[in-house]
Amino acid sequence: MPVMPSSSGMFYPGSNYAPSPSGSARQASSRSSTSSGISVVSAQEALQRVQSSQSIQGLARKISRDLGDLDGTANDLHAWFVSLDPTEYRKRAPWPPGMLNAYKRYKAFAEDHGTAHTEFETYLRASRKNTTPEQHAERARLAIGWASTALRYAC
Predict the structure, then answer these.
(1) How many CB atoms lie within 10 A of CB 66?
(2) Within the chain, which residues score under 50 in pLDDT?
């Protein structure tokens, strides 16, 4: 394959480059430049198909409406927070049984998840270099335990 220098002194391999009258390398028309032209045309055609698709536009409008609704919710929450008077706002005591149970489940999750995460991170730090297949298997076992803890409490 011939190698042609460019005006910057860089060398470009292959026959895609040919010397210009000034001596710098320029890309000759080739199959690759033709295929990139086809790629641009294909991309433009795909863009036109997406833009003309009613289902895509409908989906985009729905997403936009949903985001607008969420923005309104965030603004409502902010307005509520600003309106709170710290001298009048009191903690709800005692908590209802449902809230106590939810809090206990949350604390159990946080403890289990934190323990599994800590075990994984500790083993990972201790066995970073020159690892054996057994160490990789142990890392995988700990990672699966950590993930299953998260999934168990997510449902």
Answers:
(1) 10
(2) 1-18, 24-33, 35
